[in-house]
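Note to self: the last two entries modelled the partners one at a time, which told us nothing about the interface. This time every component goes in together.
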Amino acid sequence: MGSCRDAGVLLCALLGGLLLTGSSSGSKLKGPELSLKGSQHIMQAGQTLYLKCRGEAAHSWSLPETVRKESKRLSITKSACGRNDKQFCSTLTLNMAQANHTGFYSCKYLSTPTSKKKKTESTIYIFINDTDRPFLEMHSEIPEIIYMTEGREVVIPCRVTSPNVTVTLKKFPHDTLIPDGKRITWDSRKGFIIANATYREIGLLACETTVNGHLYKTNYLTYRQTNTIIDAQIITPSPVKLLRGRTLTLNCTTTTALNTRVQMTWSYPGEAKKRASVRQRIGRRSSDANVFYSVLMIYNVQNRDKGLYTCHVKSGPSFKSVNTSVHVYDKAFITVKHRKQHVLETVAGKRSYRLSMKVKAFPSPEVLWLKDGFPVTEKSARYLVLGYSLIIKDVAAEDAGDYTILLAIKQSNVFKNLTTTLIVNVKPQIYEKAVSSFPDPTLYPLGSRQTLTCTIYGVPQPTVRWFWRPCHHNHSKARYDFCSNNDEPLILDPDGNVGNRIESITQRTAIIEGKNKTASTLVVADARISGIYSCVASNKVGTVERNINFYITDVPNGFHVNLEKMPTEGEDLKLSCTVNKFLYRDITWLLLRTVKNRTMHHSISKQKMAITKEYSVTLDLTVKNASLEDSGTYACRARNIYTGEEILQKKEVTIRDQEAPRLLTSLSDRTVAISSSSTFRCHVTGVPEPQITWFKNNHQIQQEPGNPSEGHSHPREETQFRESLTKAEQDFLGPRGICRKKGMISTQAPESVCTGDARQPPPGQPRGEASRHLQTTRPPPMERPSTPAQLPALQGLWGPKSPWTPTTPGGSLFPLLGTTEAASTGDPSFSF
Ligand SMILES: *[C@@H]1O[C@H](CO)[C@@H](O)[C@H](O)[C@H]1NC(C)=O
Ligand SMILES: *[C@@H]1O[C@H](CO)[C@@H](O)[C@H](O)[C@H]1NC(C)=O
Ligand SMILES: *[C@@H]1O[C@H](CO)[C@@H](O)[C@H](O)[C@H]1NC(C)=O
Ligand SMILES: *[C@@H]1O[C@H](CO)[C@@H](O)[C@H](O)[C@H]1NC(C)=O
Ligand SMILES: *[C@@H]1O[C@H](CO)[C@@H](O)[C@H](O)[C@H]1NC(C)=O
Ligand SMILES: *[C@@H]1O[C@H](CO)[C@@H](O)[C@H](O)[C@H]1NC(C)=O
Ligand SMILES: *[C@@H]1O[C@H](CO)[C@@H](O)[C@H](O)[C@H]1NC(C)=O
Ligand SMILES: *[C@@H]1O[C@H](CO)[C@@H](O)[C@H](O)[C@H]1NC(C)=O
Ligand SMILES: *[C@@H]1O[C@H](CO)[C@@H](O)[C@H](O)[C@H]1NC(C)=O
Ligand SMILES: *[C@@H]1O[C@H](CO)[C@@H](O)[C@H](O)[C@H]1NC(C)=O
Ligand SMILES: *[C@@H]1O[C@H](CO)[C@@H](O)[C@H](O)[C@H]1NC(C)=O
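The predicted structure of the combined assembly is written out below.
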């Protein structure tokens, strides 16, 4: 017995004696005995370990994990032994024992003991001394991870191969944990035992020893054990519904932090009767979480199994629970109800509307939705069935109608249906607002009758009201009058006294393209006051307003240039430019000159000289004592407030040289019968226009002003005198009529006497030469059609009987705009 040598001869003999006595008496079964005595044994690495176990019964060995894997070196032989071979012996042989074979070796009876007091196992700790390997395991590069919980014991398992090895415990970076025998103890069979771990032990720890001058170091990383339950859930959605007799399976899944372990339990209606079987399982461990399952099953469920099932998850002080209710049904059924009302309302333009019914059914029925009796899927792609709900995307007016849900469990022959009415409200819309694209407002001729229309659609039918905001007139100098949408509006009614006189406010409804549209028309009897008209349409889902700038103009199109008279050299050149004060600003007179093919603008008169009146701003330009050099292109420029565009209107001015009056025809003698008429014609030219005076027998004939048939008429240079002669007057008339022409400017103009018949002017000589210089001023070219371009579109909406009346600032509506300088009125006869 080689091992007996180490333990001491005396001890060995003593034990042998005890063995003998026990077996000889046969009274009591003794525990197994090992050939090596004591609680520990030290042997050298590389030697062979012999360990024999002797016992009263069949036994087995319990060995360190490292030894069990040693199939080649390890052998265990069993034999009968003792007196009469009644005992059971087995011998363990481990050749070439290694340092990492250090550990507990024990021998244990296979049969369970009849009495608890009886010893059935013998254990010895064997150190396999190897000075090159003081630690069983070396973790030099990668530390071993040790899970710990604060307040609990933690062991740093730096076991050694010899009990004499002195080990120190260090903590990175500079601490040394000194065993105090209480909180921290050293056990060469276990390592360092920290009884009550604290946060101070969390981190990188190292066991160090120096053997033969060589430092050995093995590393550990303590990792705090947590109680973090990330999530607990029962995968089947609540409530769980099933028919009686089926199998209920509930799967509770818990996700935790990596170093968290959990306990999972169930509470449920049949708990006391242990109706359920529960299986627990650890799921696949991912890199950052643990998953645990607890699966509850009840076969052949009954009504009494219905109720709340709760899965409780516990980890230390952490706790989570998740529940689900279980419904058990005897047979298939459907109940369907309206959620709130039978009639539902929504608003057109909503991104999505959910039409849903309260349905209870088991098992799940087939669902079909109808709109006005037809499957919704055939109606529009905007309808989406989701469970017992119908989702209407981009709600439109045409979605109004009756919706029916059809529910069917065909295999059980259960059918139900329910209808609900959907009203789609539409916010009021004003069509004119949508189609108007002109930034600048229309101008309304002063004194005109105007019709303003708003075409409105909305559900429910909107109410329309008209409002008025007068423009501000600022009576200070350097002022700008303005109109603002922000002012408090005044409500209009046909009998009211607000703003312009209102002729009527009427409303007409018509169905156009299936939509009930309303046209509200305001007729302004007499446009006199500038302001803003607004039509406001409102219903319970919204309000919309259209502002119509109602700017009155006393000049056509709000921009007018006037040359009073084409001046002659030495006369004053008088130009005036009138623009609508709400439409234009920065009015300026320019003289355009072409120098080296470039047109130069010379600003000659500015806004500050302008005079603001009720409707317009007028800027006068006067060039005194005009000379021929003042001829040229004069332009009035103003900026459109709304478009920012600069509008230029030109006027060609040619200053005429003075020219003495000159007769183009002469009077000739004539003989006339009494009571007949005769016409004398005097034809003359000159600059400035000559004034014509008629003489009879050297007496000036007084001409009645304002009677064109009796006096002279334009053009002045061609004047006729017409007289009906009576018997009494014939003597007075005498043989000659005298036509005298007097130069207005040229005092030295000769007095001429014309006698005889009026004759045609010589060929090639224009009649009334001065008329060439007469210019008829026309309104500036229209910048846009007076009828809005969108009109056809609106007429389309309304059909041929359109209530839309365009507000036309037409020529005839301008009473002030007769041609400013009339052309020749013709050639009436002077008859006798
Ligand atoms: C024990 O140590 C030896 C080398 O000393 C090694 O080859 C063997 O794998 C180790 N056994 C175990 C189980 O770690
Ligand atoms: C372990 O072995 C070494 C040398 O092999 C020896 O010096 C030492 O005494 C041994 N330790 C024990 C406790 O036997
Ligand atoms: C462990 O230590 C903490 C504080 O360090 C102390 O509060 C607690 O009572 C200790 N527990 C035990 C069992 O010693
Ligand atoms: C081991 O330690 C014990 C007691 O501490 C001592 O008696 C023995 O001599 C030591 N053996 C060696 C080899 O150091
Ligand atoms: C429970 O759920 C998990 C995860 O969904 C799944 O892997 C597992 O198979 C389920 N167990 C049962 C019995 O349904
Ligand atoms: C069941 O779970 C829900 C949600 O987690 C919770 O609100 C409810 O209180 C729980 N019911 C019971 C009876 O525990
Ligand atoms: C709806 O149910 C009633 C009985 O509740 C039935 O008469 C009717 O035919 C059903 N309608 C449809 C469209 O199935
Ligand atoms: C008139 O215009 C002046 C200067 O722009 C301004 O200070 C004043 O407040 C205006 N008055 C009214 C009544 O708008
Ligand atoms: C259109 O509106 C009028 C006035 O509100 C109403 O009387 C009529 O019933 C409506 N017609 C339709 C088809 O909605
Ligand atoms: C001015 O322009 C006209 C035509 O555009 C050209 O014929 C003429 O040569 C130009 N004169 C000068 C001085 O550039
Ligand atoms: C008008 O101008 C001419 C030449 O430019 C000058 O001779 C004449 O005196 C001026 N007349 C008046 C009234 O200023």
